[in-house]
Structures are given as C-alpha cells and as structure tokens.
Design goal:
By secondary structure, the chain is mainly beta. It folds into 2 domains: 9-75, duf1285 like fold, CATH 3.10.540; 80-179, duf1285 protein (duf1285 protein fold), CATH 2.30.270. The protein is 10% helix and 47% strand. It contains 2 helices and 16 strands. The protein has helices at 44-52, 146-155, and strands spanning 9-10, 19-28, 34-36, 39-40, 54-56, 62-65, 69-75, 80-88, 95-100, 105-107, 114-118, 125-132, 140-144, 157-161, 164-171, 174-180. Strands 1, 2, 3, 4, 5, 6 and 7 form a 7-stranded mixed β-sheet that branches. Strands 10-9-8-13-12-11 form a 6-stranded mixed β-sheet. The protein has a 3-stranded antiparallel β-sheet with strand order 14-15-16, with helices on one face. A hairpin with a 2-residue loop joins strand 3 and strand 4 (39-40). The N and C termini lie far apart (54 Å).
Length: 186
C-alpha cells in the first residue's frame, strides 16, 4: 500500500507501529468498481483482498489498514454491493442471506440489519445491509442492488411497527421494514 514518493509518517501510538500514508489513490465507485489511480482494478481476488483491510473511522471516513500501514480512501456511497439473495423458510423463521460483490456472505439479522434510506428530492428508496461494524456509529455497509431489492419486495409481508403498518421482510426472527403500507391496503 505504500505510495512511492509519498510522505508516510509513523503513527503517534507507540504501542502500534503503523505507518500513516495519508490519502491513498483508491476510489470505490457507487457501482462497486474499485479504482487505483483512476484505473479499475480488474482482478477480483485483488479487490477481495483489499476489502478485508477496509476500515471505517468514527468520523465516517474510510481507510485501508494493514498491520504495517494505513491510508484514507474515497468511497462514493458504500464500499460493497449486495448482488445476490438466498432465502429459506418463511414468516418469522425466514432467513435471508446476501452475497456481496466481494463474495462475502452476510445473513440479515440483529447484527446485520437491513435499512432503507430515501432520497430527499425523489423519495426513491435505497436499501442497505450492514456488513460489519466500523468505529463509532458508522458501520460498513453494502447497498442492495436493484434486482435484489425487487426480490426482497416480492418476499415482503405486512407488519405493524410502532403503530404503523409497514411492508417488510423477516430474517432471523427480526422484521426489516421496506416501506409504509398505503392507507386502505392489506
């Protein structure tokens, strides 16, 4: 990860000798493409390897960190995409397992909730899945691809959440709302 000709400085933490390399020339695009110096990384095993050292700081920023060095990177939305869905069971006993674009399997549940954000202007839903914890309150997430979201909607059932009728999915005995039910719908 060391940037040739870049200025790296030793971390101030004397117990941990991690070299801080500042900003690294990596960008993770909204579509899940990883770029290095503006060029897509085409070798999937390399992307999968980098994904294992991806961290998220308490301020929400992303970095790549090995035991020896670390550097910040740019992430346009979230670093991963949920590209495939497998489900077993039904009702409260349903289990939803997602495969990410780096072939990580994540089962939705208490530690890996599904959430839906809505665009402020268009109100268009964008669903996310928590992949792993970051520092503070900023997890590392995967955006659920449109095709997988349509699969979730096909599995959705009504359920009352805080007095509101919601449409959502069950996984590992947890209900994940996808949206509010229209008035008069059952």
């Amino acid at each position: 990860m060391t940037e040739r000709g870049g200025q790296c400085s030793a971390n101030a933490n004397p117990e941990r000798k991690v070299v801080d390399c500042g900003h690294l020339p990596f960008v993770i695009k909204r579509d899940g493409t990883w770029l290095y110096r503006g060029t897509p990384i085409l070798r999937k095993p390399m992307v999968c390897l980098f994904s294992t050292v991806l961290k998220r700081e308490a301020d929400g920023s992303y970095l790549l960190e090995t035991p020896a060095e670390r550097g910040s990177i740019e992430v346009e939305d979230v670093p991963f995409l949920a590209v495939e869905l497998d489900f077993t069971g039904d009702g409260m006993d349903q289990v939803l397992t997602f495969r990410t674009n780096v072939d990580q399997m994540v089962t939705a549940g208490a530690d890996h909730p599904v959430r839906v954000a809505h665009d402020i202007l268009t109100c268009e839903p964008t669903p996310y899945l928590r992949v792993r914890d970051g520092e503070g309150c900023h997890p590392i997430e995967a955006r659920i691809s449109r095709a997988v979201y349509y699969e979730l909607v096909a599995l959705a059932v009504p359920h009352v959440v805080h007095g509101r009728r919601m449409l959502g999915v069950w996984s590992c005995r947890r209900f994940f709302p996808l949206g509010e039910m229209p008035i008069g719908e059952d």
